[in-house]
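Quick illustration for those who missed Monday's session on complexes.
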Amino acid sequence: MSRELQKEQYVCLVCGFNMVGYHPEKCPFCGASKKEFITSEECSARFAVQGFTVNEKVTRLNSVPSLGLEHSAYRIKTTKNTYWIDCPSSFDTRLEPMDIITFTHHHFLGASNQYREHFSSQVCIHKLDSDHAICQAFTFDKTFQDNFTEDGIEAFPIDGHTPGFTFYIFDDILFVCDYVFIKDGKMLYNPFGPEKETREGGAKLKGIIRNRDIKIVCGYNYVVDYVEWQKKFDKLCVW
Ligand SMILES: [Zn+2]
Ligand SMILES: [Zn+2]
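Prediction with zinc ion bound:
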């Protein structure tokens, strides 16, 4: 395979999934047909990634205009390094460099392969999620299986929505991605995963966060006050 072919990359306009090194008939993530794909170059020309302040250390990153089922990624600046939690679907080289991209799960890998190469960053994900077929074209520099803390960022694998789903806490912020949806003012578990395991993971999440001083929750399409989020979560997650 030539170098050019190896760099072939398409982005699904329906879900934002990046297809690296091949041009399938259907999106492996959402099933949309090939006519919904654009090349990665076209994607970078049409979409920018913009930062929105959460607090002085944390920034929400989104494609602008929104790209398909747009999801938020988050940048955390610790005293030592710049981290991303999850990764935007569009590749924008104007962003500040990041040292580490760490994932909540394998649904929002975005253009992480391109960011990794361009910024020489390290990409991390739970081992069980790294094994999924959809990840095979992506490089992970580090996989983990247990809780860990790095530069003040705490990672908690809870299984459920995906086998390696991991939520994070940094300072007083909870990063929970798409484990739960907030729809019409109500919260529900993400239905795209095994129901029983998702509920069990929710109980683990509840147990871990109940004695923590959390103020803000960063989700895949929202940033909300913890008190407001917790009220809804408590109704969803009855022991
Ligand atoms: Zn798709
Ligand atoms: Zn997901």
